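Input record (Table S2, row 139):
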Amino acid sequence: MQKILVAHDGSKSSEKALKKALELAVNFNASLSVLSVIPELYLTELPDMDRERIFESLSTETTNTMEKIRKSLSGKSIEVKTLIRQGDPAEKILETANKMKVDLVVTGSHGKHGTKKFLLGSVSAKIVDYSKYPVLVVK
Ligand SMILES: Nc1ncnc2c1ncn2[C@@H]1O[C@H](COP(=O)(O)OP(=O)(O)O)[C@@H](O)[C@H]1O
Ligand SMILES: [Mg+2]
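Output record (adenosine-5'-diphosphate complex):
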């Protein structure tokens, strides 16, 4: 196993996924890429100004979180990359996995805004369904 991609949305569940992914990367001496996707805002009825402000704040939050992660992992023996994309989260995670030809995709079972009513979150469910590569969903 050489390349591990972990999807991070700032949720507790994705923190658990990151921990597990890190543990695996260290054990396999694999590279670890941490990906966060800034979601598109489909709230079309919002005025442009509000949409821009929400997007700005999401971007800042994501950049800060990824910077913290990058710093916290900088002392590790493995190669770590943080990536930020924009768009539909599941699509961007799958697209990145394909481009990188990863050996494993790691996600949390749930995310930030979902409900625990479902067994899996919508993003992790889509990744499990459509990924060409093995997926580890961390609970
Ligand atoms: N915007 C995102 N960027 C990166 N990873 C994400 C994103 N959204 C979700 N994920 C990944 O998918 C996992 C499950 O989240 P999700 O399916 O969105 O659950 P929920 O429906 O509870 O929000 C997260 O723990 C994270 O690993
Ligand atoms: Mg979510």
